[in-house]
Amino acid sequence: QVQLVESGGGLVQPGGSLRLSCASSGPSFSNSGVGWFRQAPGKEREFVAAISWAGRTTAYADSVKGRFTISRDNPKNPVYLQMNSLKPEDTAVYFCAQLGNRVWPGSRPLENEFNYWGQGTQVTVAS
Prior knowledge:
Layout: E1 4-7, E2 10-12, E3 18-24, E4 32-39, E5 46-51, E6 58-60, E7 68-71, E8 79-83, E9 92-101, E10 114-117, E11 121-125
Parallel strand pairs: 2-11
Antiparallel strand pairs: 1-3, 3-8, 4-5, 4-9, 5-6, 7-8, 9-10, 9-11
């Protein structure tokens, strides 16, 4: 059973920063790309960023490019989402999700390309 656990959410002022983590003890995590999605109240879940299993390839939504950075130091270690220059419109529940073994779906991954999902962590950007 693959389990993904997100952490690092919270309340931050506009312009501030947060770092989210996505961890898994599952054996397939080190061979799988990982993505971050978010869902704001009343809106559909949307793609934020993704990173390949080896960490060499990344993809970002246009809305976060230049402000957010996805990373993984080691395939077995957590995947991080560093979020800088946060805006109120970044407020959402953030989910991490895992791709299939050594699959890279391209620069605009779709939700149905991810096999496993975490429970989400709330990020609120407000003054």
